[in-house]
Write a structure and sequence with these properties.
Layout (H helix, E strand, L loop, with lengths): L2 H13 L8 E4 L14 E4 L1 H14 L4 H10 L10 H15 L2 H16 L3 H10 L2 H15 L2 H17 L3 H13 L9 E6 L5 E5 L2 H8 L3 H10 L4 E5 L1
Helix pairs in contact: 1-2, 2-3, 2-4, 10-11
Length: 240
Amino acid sequence: MNYSEHYSRLINHARNREVSGYSEKHHVLPRCMGGTDDRENLVRLTAREHFVAHQLLVKMYPGVGNLIFAVMAMCRDPHGKRVTNRLYSWLREAHSVHCNSPEILAKRRAAFLTRHAAGDPCFKVALEKLKSPEVIAKRVASRKITASTPEFKAKESSRARKRWETRDKTAVREHMTKMNKERSGRTKGSARVVVEVLPNGFIVNEHLDIKALALNRGVTYKALYQQLRAGHPTMEIAPR
């Protein structure tokens, strides 16, 4: 049997679908064989698929002891009962439901706060590790990669649309009404102009469009605007 082919089919199938319900993170190339935690090396599998994947890895690389230990850990049963992939899947899913129940989450939170208030040294070590530059840089890089994916953008867009649809828009309408009243009788960009002034006070030129002026002078709009705000030697912003 070609175990590598079966393993590749399993991984490719998992990469081209969304797992609904309980799932487990799996390293395509095991960490004991040089695999990393990069996004390209991770895939979401069901509990049953995860169990089968590790069995296939042992078949593919029989000389790697850590792969054998991983499967042994999955098959560990205190009563000596043989654990199959179906039984493993059922146990993991039941354990996930139990651990995520409101009662268990409340107990875990209470225990966490108690240990934190008591000054548990484990928490101090964990916090120092999370604040280290290496960990922060790694988290930022991972978030940038995740945020650039089309799936993430579509999900965030859907969430933003849902928040807007369910939001109370009374305050927004009041603010827009107020702004429209203040802007009545004026057009966009007509409130200010840029004038060129000689040292004797004479105005020699008047520019209605700051962006066009910046383009003509070969600078960015932001740079020109900052110069005008700071005090340009020959130009200033004036009300129209």
